[in-house]
Amino acid sequence: MNKTITILVASLLTVIVGCASYEPLVSMRGADVAAADKAPATLAYVGKRPGTQPVVARTFSTQPPVIPHAVDNFDEVSLTENQCMDCHGPANYVKKNSPKLGDSHFVAATKAFDASRHVCTSCHVAQVDAPALVENRFIGNIK
Ligand code: HEC
Ligand code: HEC
Asked: How many angstroms separate the CA atoms of 112 and 120, rounded?
């Protein structure tokens, strides 16, 4: 009987001490797992209207160059529309005074635009001035 009481008291003490030192877990994203995702803050693009800034230097070979200009009004990329092509496409780049698409954007045999490149922003990204989320020690291979 005595032994049972000792075990009971010891267990009770463990629970009480355990509760006193309990610190709630804080998730890295700062919200409860079940909470709805917070929309990220909307930041303005560093670049302005196309034609008003230099291109951004590339840091490694085969890098898709980043987009130096703002893209606020060029988000219409659908089956029949592509606002990026209005300036960068082979039919328009000269009169729009814009850099021409890379050679890799055309099918070698037919010289036609490679439709797998239709969604430009899956490779090219416009820039905002945001703090890095993690330390970045990347060193490019272009001097
Ligand atoms: C109104 C014309 C226009 C439109 C529309 C446009 N661009 Fe541009 N783009 C330019 C010009 C001009 C430059 C040269 C840099 C500058 O002046 O901003 C450029 C630069 C770039 C570059 C850098 C090229 C390099 O060699 O570094 C990329 C990548 C690019 N644009 C991608 C895009 C994408 C993707 C879209 C669609 C979301 C787009 N552009 C829409 C005119 C345009
Ligand atoms: C699958 C990834 C990918 C997609 C999608 C893509 N690009 Fe590119 N782009 C690249 C890479 C990589 C380069 C670097 C040069 C090269 O490989 O041609 C480049 C280069 C460019 C250049 C600079 C050309 C040069 O080297 O001087 C322009 C302008 C450009 N792309 C515009 C666009 C536009 C506009 C679209 C959509 C119609 C687009 N790209 C879709 C990967 C992509």
From this structure: 16
> For the chain, what's the residue count?
143
Q: How far is CA 19 from CA 13, 23, 116, in A?
A: 10, 9, 57
* CA nearest ligand 1 atom 23, residue: 67
Task: Look at residue 142 in the predicted model and tell me its pLDDT.
Answer: 82
For ligand 2, whether the C-beta of 122 sits within 6 Å is yes
| Contact (CB, 8 A) for 102 and 90 | no
Mean pLDDT of 90-115: 95
Residue nearest to atom 37 of ligand 2 (CA): 120
Q: How many CB atoms lie within 10 A of CB 74?
A: 18
What is the per-residue pLDDT across 30-41, written as a single tens digit (0 to 9) for each? Answer: 788 888 888 888
Cβ–Cβ under 8 Å, residues 57 and 80:
no
Q: Which two tokens stand for residue 140?
A: 């490019």
CA distance 90 to 8: 82
The string of pLDDT tens digits covering residues 42-82 is 899 999 999 999 999 999 999 999 999 999 988 788 888 99
